[in-house]
Amino acid sequence: KPMIMTQIREFIFIEGNVNTSCIFEITAATDLKTYQINNFTINNLKANETFYLDGIHKLIYRSSTPDQSAFDDVTLSSFPMLKPGNQYFNTSDDTVKVILKYYPTYM
Predict the structure, then answer these.
(1) Residue ranges of the chain with pLDDT lower than 50?
(2) pTM for this one?
(3) CB within 8 A of 11, min separation 6: which ones?
């Protein structure tokens, strides 16, 4: 199946029947010292710069410096994964635009 791309809302139905890796593309309209989405905390978000938390390729970077790791700006215990079915998202700031990308996975 092709990659699914959608903007984060309170909950999203995740297609598939097994867990799958995903990508968060996070863009704030203003500078933010910290931003939280579920159990991930991102520090030093810059206005209009996209921050990538890429669980598919296991990369963390900013759009302004794609070849430089931004791992030091994130608190996480693992890369993002999605469970099939309704996935709930808690965010610390509703004005931040978060795009979710994933491949539906079936076994």
Answers:
(1) none
(2) 0.94
(3) 86, 87, 88, 89
